[in-house]
Amino acid sequence: MKKTVKVVAAIIENEKNEILCALRSPSMSIPNMWEFPGGKVEEGEDVYSALEREIDEEMNGNITATEVFNQNIHEYENFIIELIAIKSNLVEGTLVPKEHSKLIWLKRENLASLQWAPADIPAVEQLITEKV
Ligand SMILES: Nc1nc2c([nH]c(=O)n2[C@H]2C[C@H](O)[C@@H](COP(=O)(O)OP(=O)(O)OP(=O)(O)O)O2)c(=O)[nH]1
């Protein structure tokens, strides 16, 4: 039976209404695909704390995770992912991509131009149709 992994991902928006998009590196699982940064929820951790920890670890980012935006279960070849995308505010600091190949900010209307990790598609679609 495939393992189910619970993953949290941050939807971070800047003052120009652009969304942070992160390119997974060639050495990561699901390589060279775009995602919302985050990672696996650890045992006993709530989703908000897990996301705040992951963004600190992955890019020295200090965020406040505010509300769940989209939840999606997707079956990959080797595992099942429960992806929880959470709206988050960047509190301070510059984001340093320690694990990702690239970080970019994109307007909602341009999000569809990237090759997203398959599990992220529902969150991307919800963002594209969201009223701001
Ligand atoms: N962080 C993140 N992972 C995603 C997204 N979409 C998606 O399919 N994934 C997948 C990629 C990975 O297989 C898994 C998350 O694992 P990870 O490698 O980023 O997380 P982690 O740092 O906690 O894991 P680990 O490598 O330390 O074990 O979820 C997304 O939007 N954000």
UniProtKB/TrEMBL annotation:
GO terms for molecular function: 8-oxo-7,8-dihydrodeoxyguanosine triphosphate pyrophosphatase activity; 8-oxo-7,8-dihydroguanosine triphosphate pyrophosphatase activity; 8-oxo-dGDP phosphatase activity; 8-oxo-GDP phosphatase activity; metal ion binding. This is 8-oxo-dGTP diphosphatase. It is an enzyme of class 3 (hydrolase). Belongs to the Nudix hydrolase family. Keywords: DNA damage, DNA repair, DNA replication, Hydrolase, Magnesium, Metal-binding, Mutator protein. InterPro entries: MutT-like, NUDIX_hydrolase-like_dom_sf, NUDIX_hydrolase_CS, NUDIX_hydrolase_dom. Its cofactor is Mg(2+). Residues 3-129 form the Nudix hydrolase domain. One of its GO terms (biological process) is DNA repair. Its EC number is 3.6.1.55. Gene3D superfamilies: Nucleoside Triphosphate Pyrophosphohydrolase. The lineage of its organism: Bacteria, Bacillati, Bacillota, Bacilli, Bacillales. It catalyses: 8-oxo-dGTP + H2O = 8-oxo-dGMP + diphosphate + H(+). PANTHER family: 8-OXO-DGTP DIPHOSPHATASE, NUDIX HYDROLASE FAMILY PROTEIN.
